[in-house]
Design a protein that fits this description.
- The chain is an alpha/beta fold.
- Helix content is 34%, strand content 15%.
- It is built from 16 helices and 16 strands.
- It has helices at residues 16-27, 65-69, 108-113, 119-140, 151-161, 165-172, 176-186, 198-211, 222-234, 260-265, 273-280, 318-327, 369-379, 395-401, 417-421, 452-463; strands spanning 8-12, 31-35, 47-48, 57-58, 85-86, 90-95, 101-104, 216-217, 238-240, 253-256, 287-295, 309-314, 334-337, 352-360, 387-393, 436-438.
- The protein has a seven-stranded mixed sheet, sandwiched between helices. Strands 9-2-1-10-16 form a five-stranded parallel sheet, with helices on one face. It has a two-stranded antiparallel ribbon with strand order 3-4.
- The chain is globular.
- It starts with 7 loop residues before the first strand and ends in a 16-residue tail after the last helix.
- It binds flavin-adenine dinucleotide.
- Flavin-adenine dinucleotide (FAD) binds next to helix 1 and strand 11.
Length: 479
């Protein structure tokens, strides 16, 4: 075990961003302690037997294009600590009512071949992006308010990314298939598809489908957190579970893997009024209603090609997806993952798991179990007969399990144009207390399992002027 210095760092929260920050701080010579409220580490990257013994479910994140390409995770020997990626045959299927499915394949040509009149347009748009991804990814996963490493690439990306997803899809593609495929991917932004910048997430995730795939970890997303924890312990860091931090700990540096609302709740700090007001005006995004299933067999899709995909988007046409994401009326846009088709560790032999959720307004108490299952039945008649057991997690249940999921918001705050740039304030990771940093999904680049919020926060702290000397008196803002 490497020697650690006398400088101390506390990290509040063991989500992927908190653990990433902790590893980097330990590498920088800090004696690091991570404090986690739950007994189980990992925050949004956890797995558990939510239904029946032997059925392993991803409590939150399931599919990880951002993790496999993350410049932060690339620095950690995660494979040595047990992380193994599985690539389903195809990243994504989007079934339609005609009994076929539009496929996002790893190969751009194979994808183009199932898009009818829009094959060439898809190839022209996503081909160069997939090729340029390795050069662009650091810019795209960093704060917007900085000079990009690849300004020309970023200007071209920004031109499209700042547009509403629906209008970009309509201008790029003539046919229903390509429009529907792009709309479903863009809906991961959890923004209405007519909102400015809703195209950005659609462009990035579609590009990643070609550039790096949409993999799942063997043994569940908990394996990502366990591997990060393994890296941290190898650097001399420790993790204390089952303790919710309610006051700022006494440490030279404090990294908060929490959202603005919780930061405001700490009693032993007097934030300057302007900072407090900025945090108070932070907007949380729509919530999530999540179902997990133990199944007697695979989902009986009408379109058999859906069985080749790790993720399946159920929403029909672009117009239907857009209606749900704007008003949460009509038929829900449902995201399904079917991990057990590709990872036998998830269910007993011959049995299967499914993971499904849709977006609702923040804090909604509506029970949409029947609506979600109707939508699955629409594309997979007979699905209900395969259900052995279901787990239901409404927005309030998610928040109870992880206080960062305010009102069921899985991104630590809405992705609107303002909050994409000033996330959560113009200070980004910094706070007015010079030893306290934010490093959660409420900072750039936002939600997803990638650790880049932790990485950028440590860079902000150690790369500039905030190397805190041992024994330095506590800043007067903290009582
Ligand atoms: C249902 C769902 C599905 C998702 N699907 C995907 C997906 O497929 N792919 C993907 O990339 N992302 C997905 N995400 C998003 C992803 O999980 C999050 O964006 C990511 O986990 C955010 O990481 P984080 O480190 O910022 O915070 P979190 O992972 O939320 O971790 C925060 C941790 O801090 C702890 N904590 C909070 N307050 C305190 C306190 N006061 N004291 C001590 N500990 C505290 C919490 O218990 C938690 O463990 C999904 C999320 C959900 C909920």
């Amino acid at each position: 075990m490497p020697e650690t210095g006398s400088k101390t760092a506390s990290v509040i929260g063991s989500g992927p961003n908190g653990l990433s920050a902790a590893i980097l701080l330990a590498r920088a010579g800090y004696r690091v302690t991570v404090h986690e409220a739950n007994e189980q580490i990992g925050g949004g990257a956890r797995s558990s037997e939510l239904t029946l013994p032997g059925f392993l479910h991803d409590v939150c994140s399931a599919v990880h294009p951002m993790a496999i390409t993350s410049p932060c995770f690339e620095q950690f020997p995660l494979a040595e600590h047990g992380l193994e990626w599985i690539h389903p045959d195809a990243p994504l299927a989007h079934p339609l009512d005609d009994g076929t499915a539009v496929m996002l394949e790893r190969s751009i040509d194979a994808t183009a071949a199932n898009l009818g009149p829009d094959g060439d347009a898809w190839r022209r748009f996503f081909g160069p992006l997939a090729e340029r991804w390795p050069a662009m990814k650091m810019d795209l996963l960093s704060p917007i308010l900085r000079i990009p490493r690849k300004p020309v690439d970023m200007a071209l990306f920004g031109m499209h990314a700042l547009r509403p997803a629906a209008s970009l899809a309509r201008s790029l593609f003539k046919g229903e298939r390509a429009r529907a495929l792009f709309a479903g991917v863009a809906a991961h932004s959890i923004m209405p598809l007519d909102a400015p910048a809703s195209a950005s997430v659609g462009i990035v995730l579609s590009t990643l489908g070609h550039a790096v795939g949409w993999p799942i970890p063997r043994g569940g997303s908990q394996k990502i957190s366990d591997a990060l924890a393994g890296c941290l312990r190898a650097e001399g860091g420790e993790i204390v579970t089952g303790t919710r931090v309610t006051r700022f700990p006494d440490a030279d540096l404090i990294f908060c893997d929490i959202t603005p609302r919780q930061l405001l709740a700490f009693p032993n700090v007097r934030w300057p009024k302007s900072f407090r007001q900025s945090l108070e005006s932070w907007k949380y995004g729509p919530g999530v209603f999540k179902l997990d299933y133990a199944l007697d067999g695979p989902i009986p899709w009408n379109a058999p090609e859906c069985l080749r995909a790790g993720t399946v988007h159920l929403g029909g046409t672009l117009e239907e997806v857009a209606l749900w994401e704007r008003h949460h009326t009509g038929k829900p846009f449902v995201l399904v993952a079917q991990q057990s088709l590709f990872d036998p560790t998830r269910a007993p032999e011959g049995k299967h798991t499914a993971w499904a959720y849709c977006h609702l307004r923040n804090g909604s108490t509506q029970d949409v179990t029947r609506l979600i299952e109707d939508q699955i039945e629409r594309f997979a008649p007979g699905f209900r007969e395969r259900i052995l057991m279901r787990s239901v997690l409404a927005p309030a249940d998610l928040e109870r399990r992880n206080h960062n999921l305010v009102g069921g918001d899985i991104n630590g705050g809405a992705f609107n144009l303002r909050q994409l740039i000033f996330r959560p304030t113009a200070r980004l990771y910094r706070t007015p207390v010079n030893r306290v940093y934010l490093c959660s999904a409420s900072t750039p680049p936002g939600g997803g399992v990638h650790g880049m919020c932790g990485y950028n926060a440590v860079k902000a702290a150690l790369g500039v002027s905030v190397q805190v000397a041992p024994g330095r008196p506590i800043t007067p803002l903290i009582r």
